[in-house]
Every structure is written in structure tokens, then in C-alpha cells.
Design a protein that fits this description.
The structure is a single chain. By secondary structure, the chain is of the alpha+beta class. It has one domain. Helices cover 35% and strands 21% of the residues. The chain has a 3-stranded antiparallel sheet.
């Protein structure tokens, strides 16, 4: 799965890069029979991106509103003395490594969202 991202800041010393990533929400339903995208929308209550609209990719807010994409923040430590291209490569490698865990935690959190019952 491709991780789409927007870098917003680089620390004053050039060793910490931060921004937001957007991941595809898994298809299918949770254990309660609620579609993952619906559970996400209801859980978040607001899907407004934290990324300024001036740099948010076209159509991304619609994807967030529909629950097809999940926005998460990141901070990646890099070597301040490396080239911008090398730093970008480090950020991308870190995001690829983080995404599966981010999505697993999201699914664990919303596994029973919408479940009802009586005893």
C-alpha cells in the first residue's frame, strides 16, 4: 500500500521532520458488522484534515470525509547534515515501516465499534 504524505516542518536544527500521512482504510466490516470506513467517521466525529488546505492534495478532503483515507501525524528524526533527497528517503522508509502498525492499531481500536446486544 502506498503511503501518501505531506511534510509541514523541518526543525530549526534540521534533524526532525514532521507532517501528516494518509493511508487507505481497510475494506470490509469490523466484528460488529460496521464498515471500517463508517466506524472511522463515527469515531473521529470530525474528518477535517490538519493539513492546511493550501497544501492538501486535491480530492484528499473528500477521501477523509468518506472514510476511505485515514490521516495520521508523524515525526521522523533524520541526520541534519544529509541532503534533502536523503532525508526524504529516510522519511519515506519510516512511513512505510509505520503504516502497518498504525492501521492495525486503528482496527484494534474500532474492532467492536457499533456492536449492540443484550444479556
Amino acid at each position: 500500500m502506498a503511503v501518501e504524505y505531506v511534510i509541514l516542518t523541518n526543525s530549526d536544527k534540521g534533524h526532525r521532520i514532521s507532517g501528516f500521512a494518509h493511508s487507505v482504510v481497510p475494506s470490509g466490516d469490523n466484528a460488529a458488522g460496521t464498515p471500517w470506513s463508517q466506524a472511522l467517521i463515527e469515531y473521529l466525529e470530525s474528518t477535517v484534515s490538519q493539513v492546511p488546505s493550501s497544501v492538501l492534495p486535491a480530492g484528499r478532503q473528500t477521501e477523509l470525509d468518506s472514510g476511505s483515507k485515514y490521516e495520521w501525524s508523524f515525526i521522523v528524526d533524520v541526520n541534519a547534515h544529509e541532503t534533502p533527497a536523503t532525508k526524504q528517503g529516510e522519511v519515506e522508509a519510516e512511513l512505510v515501516e509505520l503504516e502497518p502498525d498504525i492501521l492495525t492499531k486503528l482496527q484494534n481500536r474500532l474492532q467492536f465499534w457499533g456492536k449492540t446486544g443484550s444479556v
